[in-house]
Design goal:
The complex is a heterodimer of chains A (260) and B (324).
Chain A: E1 3-7, E2 9-11, E3 33-35, H1 37-53, E4 58-64, H2 69-77, E5 82-87, H3 95-106, E6 113-117, H4 128-136, E7 139-149, E8 153-159, E9 164-170, E10 173-177, H5 189-196, E11 200-203, H6 212-215, E12 220-226, E13 235-238, H7 242-257
Parallel strand pairs in A: 1-4, 1-6, 4-5, 5-11, 6-10, 7-10
Antiparallel strand pairs in A: 2-3, 7-8, 8-9
Helix pairs in contact in A: 2-5, 3-4
Chain B: E1 4-7, E2 10-11, E3 14-15, H1 17-33, E4 37-42, H2 50-55, E5 60-64, H3 74-88, E6 92-96, H4 99-112, E7 115-120, E8 122-126, E9 129-136, E10 141-147, E11 152-156, E12 172-175, E13 185-191, E14 205-209, H5 220-229, E15 232-235, H6 237-241, E16 262-266, H7 272-278, E17 283-288, H8 295-298, E18 301-304, H9 307-323
Parallel strand pairs in B: 1-4, 1-6, 4-5, 5-12, 6-11, 7-11, 14-15, 14-16, 16-17, 17-18
Antiparallel strand pairs in B: 2-3, 8-9, 9-10
Classes of the chains: A alpha/beta (260), B alpha/beta (324).
């Protein structure tokens, strides 16, 4: 069983966002970059499957700038066996552009399962997974919280607003991981040392037969980015008299929120 | 001139609220682009929604009535929706960012070679292009994106657009010649939780608890307050990671992003991760004993006090007020 795990590197979720000088991206100064949190579930699932089967590769594929190499190393330290880094300015690419890059890499790699995180944390598009599956001509299941691997098929449990869907897919298939799928491991010292011996294969768009126009800002372009409007300061009250505080909350809920 | 197609979800012959919201913004876009508003719905009860669609200004409802489309299935819905896009010659395709819409839009986008803006909170037609405003970094910033492809696809965030019928208009039904082919994925079961709880995704009221509750058993107070208000229960990442509450309830950057009419944060300090998931709520109430907690920066009404003292009379007072 060979798995591909597509990852992206994003600002840590504790980052305080500042807008960059171009007015349409974030200021990366001082930002700590990490593996996108949902991609950690994707990676862990692939590594677990490999451990259970005792065979096959877990290949990490990342389209991103040079700095993304640290995220790839992190994935290798947590159990991935191979890595391919397509170097490029992924923030300027639209989701279909990213999917085209990943598809071009994956077509030449053996793959039974393709994993992605359910969204890249930050850009929050949740688009690349199903787009990639469509380009590869395989089934996809998004927001997956449980996965069972059978003979030539997988059963994926998908979280919806009100229920859980159980979906059976023939392989190869793409799975978009949601929190709850597993508990991602931390990199061990042994893992970090082993990861250093693995060469990261580096590629350019040209190597994949792609032109910049296929990938960058072709269909969707970010034209502006701004911080949310500051909310006017609210009211803070003293709750040392619990009954009075409760009554004031109820008055607020009734008169201003019209909650009842 | 650009025609608009709104991909609707119909349940028991009625449009879902999220689809009525999408139709309303779709109608505005059609007016701005000088085109017509059409819709697509699928499944055996889809055609029954025609009159309701007409009340939102839909000229033609394209229907794929095959029962294979009753439940959401990515491959079937993608191929049926593509039929509708082609039949309606739509330049703008809008749907709601429900679990079906989020799954369908990207697959359809890739099939059509179209750009997609997801989870948008505002849409406009400007200079012959669709422009969308969407939260990024879980609402810590907003991006304006321009979609240059034809068609341009957008999914709308729930509650971000009002649903307003025009009250007039007949809607023609056009049956698409779609039939189900083979699929690689099959829905084999739907597990509906045995709960009367309101779902976090589309709740008008969300009551969330955090570490201030001290121990897992006290989360029952969050249930009681949510129940009294007819709302859903949420949680901070801290208590989800500690295993007090299932991750389905997590509100924040790696949980669910919610924007209900009312959000009540109980014993939540307001880590930036959490604020990202709830600060766009219309009204925010916070109870926390630490007056310096960051949650008070976003609260419309902040109560500095002991939640264990305040919650019991609060639940009582709400029950009394609702009984009137």
């Amino acid at each position: 069983m060979n798995s591909i795990v597509c990852i992206t590197q994003v600002p840590d979720t504790e980052t305080r966002i500042k807008i960059g000088g171009d007015g349409r991206s974030i200021d990366e100064t001082g930002v700590k970059f990490v593996v996108s949190p949902y991609d950690e579930y994707a990676l862990e699932e692939a590594v677990k499957i490999r451990e259970a089967k005792g065979a096959g590769d877990v290949t990490v594929v990342c389209f991103g700038p040079e700095r993304a190499q640290s995220a790839i190393r992190d994935c290798l330290a947590r159990g991935a066996t191979k890595a391919i880094h397509v170097i490029g300015d992924s923030l300027r690419a639209d989701s279909l552009g990213i999917a085209k890059v990943l598809a071009a890499v994956i077509r030449s790699q053996p793959h039974d399962l393709v994993f992605v995180g359910k969204q890249g944390v930050g850009t929050d598009n949740s688009l690349v997974g199903p787009m990639l599956a469509e380009l590869l001509g395989i089934a996809h299941v998004t927001v997956v919280t449980k996965l069972e691997v059978g003979d030539g098929k997988v059963t994926a449990y998908r979280e919806t607003e009100i229920a859980e869907e159980v979906i059976e897919c023939s392989l190869p298939a793409l799975v978009a991981a949601q929190k709850g799928l597993n508990n991602p491991r931390f990199a061990s010292i042994k893992g970090i040392m082993a990861a250093k011996k693995i060469a990261i294969e580096s590629k350019t768009l040209a190597d994949l037969g792609l032109a910049e126009g296929d990938v960058y800002e072709t269909r969707v372009k970010v034209v502006a980015m701004e911080l949310p409007r500051e909310k006017p300061a609210g009211r803070k009250i003293d709750g040392s008299d619990p009954v009075a505080a409760a009554k004031e909350i109820v008055r607020y809920l009734h008169e201003e929120v019209k909650a009842f | 001139m650009a025609d608009v197609l709104v991909i609707c979800e119909v349940k028991d012959g009625k449009l879902k609220k999220s689809s009525r919201e999408a139709l309303t913004i779709g109608r505005q876009l059609a007016a701005a682009a000088g085109g017509s508003l059409n819709a697509f719905a699928c499944g055996s009860s889809a055609a029954a929604a025609a009159a309701e669609a007409g009340s939102f200004g839909v000229a033609t409802l394209h229907v794929a009535g095959d029962a294979a489309l009753d439940a959401y299935a990515s491959e079937h819905w993608t191929s049926a929706a593509k039929f509708a896009v082609e039949a309606s010659s739509a330049a703008i395709v809008v749907m709601s960012a429900t679990s079906a819409g989020r799954d369908l839009a990207p697959r359809l986008g890739a099939r059509l070679g179209a750009g997609v803006a997801s989870d948008v909170v505002a849409l406009e037609w400007a200079d012959g292009k669709l422009r969308a405003r969407r939260p990024v970094y879980s609402g810590k910033a907003f991006a304006t994106v321009e979609i240059g492809s034809n068609p341009a696809i957008a999914t709308c965030r729930a509650n971000a657009f009002p649903a307003e019928a025009t009250g007039a208009g007949a809607c023609e039904v056009s049956n698409l010649a779609w039939s189900a082919g083979d699929t690689k994925a099959k829905l084999v079961a739907v597990n509906v939780p045995e709960t009367t709880e309101v779902s976090l995704a589309d709740a008008d009221v969300v009551v969330s608890g955090g570490r201030g509750l001290k121990e897992t058993a006290n989360y029952a107070m969050i249930h009681d307050l949510a129940h009294a208000l007819g709302g859903a229960t949420g949680a901070s990442r801290a208590i989800v990671d500690d295993g007090w509450v299932d991750h389905h309830h997590q509100v924040g950057q790696t949980g669910r992003v919610v924007s209900p009419n009312l959000y009540i944060a109980i014993g939540i300090s307001g880590a930036i991760q959490h604020l990202a998931g709830m600060s766009s709520s219309k009204h925010i109430v916070a109870i926390n004993k630490d007056g310096e907690a960051p949650i008070f920066r976003v609260a419309d009404l902040g109560v500095v006090g002991d939640l264990f003292q305040i919650l019991p009379p609060l639940i009582e007072e709400i029950k009394k007020a609702k009984a009137h």
